[in-house]
Design a protein that fits this description.
Helix content is about 60%, strand content about 0%. With about 450 residues, the chain is mainly α.
Length: about 450
């Protein structure tokens, strides 16, 4: 088969979406404390590795094809992509994989600074298999919410063009469940050191996410007209959301912030995701402004309600995901064979469909995530020790640090932390010598030891 412009665009779009996960790593990494930045970024990167393997082996098969009770596809139908040989099929598998990757990576921001990396590497493939793949099948793979699905026939097909339900509501609910199970960070709401340590990283990450989102939303466009509408809407909604967030900050706090600008962009991108091909540009502006203001207000609730959603996954992805999904019941444009949203004279049919897909997705993700997370938490443990959290998960889990302050650029762990990092007591007589010229402090050369120990 000849390589067409459509094939090329879908491969480019898939590359853009894959690039979003390193962008997310910068976005999240900058929002954490300096001593947890590498761990946070690693949680995104390991998601690429693990989901990439799962998707090739059984994930792609579970999210499409013949299914079980319209809930999930057969994992063995095309296990290892056996029989998937056409360019169209393989390119679509690759494109779909990037969505699964970033969905689970999004969850990690809620449990920053305190989750065991080993537990996360168990959670990722299990959650993608039992939560993401079935929900993707129900919405996109011909399952319950599709035109031939039981709920789709009863209420009409739900609209989720690029993942408001499958990606953002799903990840936001899972993030909330993990936070409730793992618990809050030490000093949550009191320790000022929990503030983001590198706002330029946050803004760089937001820029990469916005760039990649044009592939995220536009990859599935079927016509030039639809592609143009998606592109403009993906520009308009986050732009309006950024302004909505900053205005809300200005009124509430007295000043707009750089973190608010970056978070507002992401909130608008989340809200337009399910609606990008089904609302007008003016509708996208209204949707973005509403999502930006609502998420700005929602992120403050974690302090009032006492749950430590570290990097605002719930406040941004769950809240804006619900807004974007449900808003389609009001502002969806009429299309051939469908009446559109309530504001376009389409009646309540689309609204009921959108409420149903959002509600069932919330319940499904919450229940399955709770089962998975509790199983991990009660067996291997999902949370680091208090000592490891205080030292910092970068050093205690990875024996690395993102930054070196005053040690001549040398990496590594320090003698008092040897047992914490390696699990072995320090050798007798290994104490570092004291340099008289350093006012009694250990010298940098003697005080460090190889992280390879």
């Amino acid at each position: 088969m000849e390589l067409t412009a459509g094939h090329v665009w879908l491969m480019v779009a898939a590359a853009l979406v894959l690039f979003m996960t390193p962008g997310l790593a910068f976005f999240y990494g900058g929002m954490t404390r300096a001593k947890a930045a590498l761990n946070m970024m690693m949680m995104s990167f390991i998601s690429i590795g693990m989901v990439g393997v799962v998707w090739v082996l059984w994930g792609a098969s579970m999210s499409s094809g013949e299914g079980f009770m319209q809930i999930v596809g057969n994992p063995f139908a095309t296990f290892g992509l056996e029989g998937v040989t056409s360019p169209d099929g393989l390119i679509k598998v690759g494109y779909a994989a990037t969505f699964a990757i970033i969905t689970v990576a999004l969850i990690s921001g809620a449990i920053a600074d305190r989750a065991k990396f080993g537990a996360w590497t168990v959670f990722v493939p299990v959650w993608v298999t039992l939560v993401y793949c079935p929900l993707a099948y129900m919405v996109w793979g011909g399952g319950l919410f599709g035109p031939e699905g039981a709920i789709g026939k009863a209420l009409g097909p739900a609209i989720d063009f690029a993942g408001g339900t499958v990606v953002h509501i799903n990840a936001g609910v899972a993030a909330l469940i993990l936070v409730l199970i793992i618990g809050n960070r030490k000093g949550f709401g009191k320790d000022p050191n929990h503030r983001p340590h590198n706002i330029p990283f946050v803004m760089l990450g937001a820029a990469i996410l916005w760039f990649g989102w044009f592939g995220f939303n536009g990859g599935a466009a079927t016509t030039a007209e639809q592609g143009g509408l998606i592109w403009v809407n993906t520009l308009a909604a986050p732009a309006a959301a950024m302004l909505g967030w900053l205005i809300t900050e200005r009124i509430r706090d007295g000043h707009p912030t750089s973190l608010g600008a970056a978070s507002g962009v992401v909130a608008g991108l989340v809200a337009i995701t399910p609606a990008c091909a089904n609302v007008s540009p003016v509708g996208a502006l209204c949707l973005g402004a509403a999502a930006g203001a609502a998420s700005a207000l929602a992120v403050g609730l974690k302090f009032r309600w006492g749950f430590d959603d570290s990097l605002d996954v719930v406040g941004v992805h769950l809240v804006s995901g619900i807004i974007g999904t449900v808003a389609l019941g009001f502002i969806a444009l009429p299309v051939e064979g469908a009446g559109g949203g309530l504001f376009y004279g389409g009646g309540f049919a689309q609204l009921w469909a959108q409420l149903a897909v959002a509600g069932i997705a919330i319940a499904y993700s919450a229940i399955l995530t709770a089962v998975i997370a509790l199983a991990i938490h009660k067996t291997m443990g999902f949370r680091v020790s208090q000592e490891q959290e205080v030292v910092g998960v970068d050093l205690s889990l990875h024996a690395e640090t993102a930054y070196e302050f005053g040690v001549g650029g040398h990496g590594g762990s320090f003698q008092p932390l040897h047992e914490l990092i390696t699990g072995r007591p320090a050798a007798d007589g290994a104490a570092a010598p004291v340099d008289a010229a350093s006012n009694g402090k250990k010298t940098a050369a003697a005080g460090k030891e190889s992280v390879g120990a």
